[in-house]
Structure formats: structure tokens, C-alpha cells
């Protein structure tokens, strides 16, 4: 049996995502209801360097508050 190839740094990348599996875009704000990212950010997420992902994640709480979007209950917490 052949081993599945590993994705470099996959475990590290999975810790650096605000995704809460509620992938719906608010038509008014163009932000994801679950995480607050834009479609271009979501599309590029795994191509981004770690520092860029963390930078976007730092903006999300204020972005969601400004847009009037409440964080989804049970969403991930990031330091």
C-alpha cells in the first residue's frame, strides 16, 4: 500500500485559518458570514505566506464588527 503524499506545512497552515465551515457570502458586505474574509482572500488563502494569513486574521474581528456580522458560535479562537 502506498502512503498518501503529505502537503508541506499542512498542519501549520490548518492552525492559521479563521474558517468555521459557514461558507456564505453576505451580498451587501461581500464578506463571508462565518469568517469575515472576502472571496479573493478565501481563494488565495493557501497561497498566502503565513505572515499574510495572520495579518488578515488580525483584521477580521474589527471587519466583522464594522459590517454588523456576529462571529458564529463555536468559531475558532486565535491568539
TrEMBL record:
Source domain of life: Bacteria
Pfam families registered for this protein in UniProt: DUF1289 (PF06945)
PANTHER family associated with the record: DUF1289 DOMAIN-CONTAINING PROTEIN
Protein name: Fe-S oxidoreductase
Organism, as annotated: Bradyrhizobium diazoefficiens SEMIA 5080
Amino acid at each position: 500500500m502506498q502512503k498518501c503524499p503529505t502537503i508541506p506545512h499542512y498542519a501549520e497552515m490548518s492552525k492559521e485559518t479563521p474558517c468555521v465551515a459557514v461558507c456564505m457570502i453576505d451580498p451587501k458586505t461581500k464578506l463571508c458570514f462565518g469568517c469575515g474574509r472576502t472571496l479573493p482572500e478565501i481563494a488565495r488563502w493557501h497561497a498566502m505566506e503565513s505572515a499574510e494569513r495572520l495579518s488578515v486574521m488580525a483584521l477580521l474581528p474589527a471587519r466583522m464588527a464594522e459590517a454588523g456580522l456576529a462571529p458564529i458560535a463555536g468559531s475558532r479562537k486565535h491568539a
